[in-house]
Every structure is written in structure tokens, then in C-alpha cells.
Design goal:
With 282 residues, the protein is mostly beta strands. The protein has helices spanning 8-15, 31-37, and strands at 27-29, 49-51, 58-61, 65-67, 75-77, 83-85, 90-93, 113-115, 124-131, 138-140, 145-152, 159-161, 166-168, 171-173, 180-182, 187-189, 192-194, 201-203, 208-210, 213-215, 222-224, 229-231, 234-236, 241-245, 250-252, 255-257, 262-265, 268-269, 274-275.
Length: 282
């Protein structure tokens, strides 16, 4: 049996013919391709890494992304149904590299992972850190899923997602505005919102906010609008109310302690709450 070997020039052409794929078909993103060559079809050299869906639907970081300044996005998404695994790497503004103290920029228009419109539905982002961006850490449209992120020192909200989103198991710390902000019909569970400049968690109509910790935020610990269910949260030492609720939002089994403006404003008490160590809550 004869074995035919392709010449080296042909092998090089094959290697350059299309985007590099991981063995499972996931497209890879790293700082070298982001900065120098573009990482796949539809993405030009230089930040932001632009995802328009032509190369594929699933992406994974294989290094940190070091964004040059506060006016540049890290990853910009202009389509729907995209999944991004940060793979425990970090999207970080250049000036924040190595910082152990707060490095929120005073101004800026760039974000970490940004959707071009809230109509880009079905985007998921998970498993990594986003640090020091000029606007949002994460800004996504409807039906978003955000999980396992560590988001800190961004100038505006840490995580902002539109209606019918799921935001779970994230840590948002020291962002300039709200820690987590979501649209109607969303689920916000198992997150820690600490020392953000605005509210720890802000959820609009008909949302479920459960099992979160909201501590030392610059305004209210948790804000939830009519028809929301706020349960099993630990809320303490916020500069506003512990819970600031619309009149038909229900709350139960929360521990609410030492918030400057008071424990609970409005809402329907479903019982099981502890308000400054007292089982009788407003």
C-alpha cells in the first residue's frame, strides 16, 4: 500500500484555511489572536473580539484577554444564541493588571462582554473574571444566562441582563453602580453582591430572587418589583433598605440586618424573616 504525503506548502494552506477549533468544535479566543490576527471569521485584528455567528455558536477562552483601555470592549456580540466559556480566565483592562486595590475608571465606553442590542437573545457567559471595564462587566439581552463569574471594579453595573434571564452563582464586588440588574421574569439565585456603588441586586417585575447575599452596597441590598418572590436571602449593612420592594412583591425567610434606611420597605411578608434579630418584620 502506498502512502501519499502532502507537500509542506499544502499543509500550510490547510492550516490557514479556517478558524482554529478545539477538538469538541468550540472556537478558541486568546489575547494573541484578539490583538494580532483576529480569532475567526468575522473578527478583525484588535479588540474587541467580534462575534457575529458566522464562525460558530460556541466559544472558549484559552488565555486572559487584556483590553487596552476603558473605551474598548473585550468581546462584542452582534447575534443571538451564543455561548462563551471564559474557562477561568480573565477579561481585564490593561491598567488593572496586577491590582490588589480598586481600579474603577473615572469614565469610559468599553465593557467586558457586551451585546450590541437587548434583542440578541439566548447568550450565555460563564466561568471567569471581568475586571475594570469602562461601562458594564456584562451587558446582555433577553433570555441570557450568566453563571460562575467574578465581576469587579467596572464603572457601571457588574452584570446587566434583560428579560427572562437566569443569573446564578456569580460574585459581583465593588462595581460603580448596581451589582446585578435584570429585566422582568428573571431568576437571580445564589449570587454574592458586595460593596457595589448602587443596589446589590435590582430585579424588575415578576422575578425570583433567592439565596443571594447582598452586603455593604451603596444603596439598597435588594430591589424587586411587583409580582416578584424574594426569599432566603442574607442582606446586611447596605446604605439603603435591606429590601426595597413594590407593593405586591412577596418576601419570606430572609435575614435582614443593620441596613441604614431600615429592614424592609413595602412588599408582602410571607413569614420566616429575621429583621435585626426580630421575627416581626414590617
Amino acid at each position: 500500500m502506498r502512502i501519499y504525503l502532502l507537500p509542506l506548502s499544502s499543509l500550510l494552506l490547510l492550516a490557514l484555511a479556517g478558524p482554529a477549533l478545539a477538538v469538541d468544535g468550540v472556537l478558541e479566543i486568546n489575547h494573541t489572536c484578539a490583538d494580532k490576527t483576529g480569532c475567526f471569521s468575522g473578527d478583525n485584528p484588535g479588540y474587541p473580539v467580534t462575534i457575529d455567528g458566522t464562525a460558530g455558536r460556541s466559544y472558549r477562552l484559552t488565555s486572559d484577554l487584556i483590553v487596552p483601555n476603558q473605551n474598548t470592549d473585550g468581546i462584542l456580540i452582534s447575534t443571538l444564541d451564543i455561548g462563551i466559556d471564559l474557562n477561568n480566565f480573565t477579561i481585564i483592562r490593561f491598567s488593572c493588571e496586577g491590582n490588589t486595590t480598586v481600579c474603577i475608571p473615572a469614565s469610559g465606553i468599553g465593557g467586558g462582554v457586551i451585546s450590541t442590542t437587548t434583542l440578541n437573545r439566548g447568550i450565555s457567559v460563564k466561568n471567569g473574571s471581568i475586571v475594570g471595564m469602562g461601562t458594564y462587566g456584562v451587558f446582555l439581552g433577553e433570555q441570557a444566562e450568566v453563571s460562575g463569574l467574578r465581576v469587579r471594579w467596572n464603572r457601571l453595573d457588574g452584570i446587566n441582563a434583560s428579560n427572562a434571564s437566569i443569573i446564578t452563582a456569580n460574585t459581583v464586588d465593588g462595581n460603580g453602580r448596581d451589582g446585578i440588574r435584570c429585566g422582568s421574569g428573571s431568576t437571580v439565585s445564589g449570587n454574592t453582591a458586595h460593596a457595589n456603588g448602587g443596589d446589590g441586586i435590582f430585579a424588575t417585575v415578576g422575578s425570583t430572587v433567592s439565596g443571594n447575599t447582598a452586603n455593604t452596597n451603596g444603596s439598597d441590598g435588594i430591589v424587586a418589583f411587583n409580582g416578584s418572590n424574594v426569599s432566603g436571602n442574607t442582606v446586611s449593612l447596605n446604605a439603603g433598605f435591606g429590601l426595597n420592594l413594590s407593593t405586591t412583591a412577596a418576601y419570606g425567610e430572609n435575614v435582614i440586618t443593620d441596613n441604614t434606611m431600615g429592614t424592609v420597605k413595602n412588599g408582602v411578608n410571607m413569614g420566616g424573616n429575621s429583621c435585626n434579630g426580630n421575627t416581626i418584620c414590617p
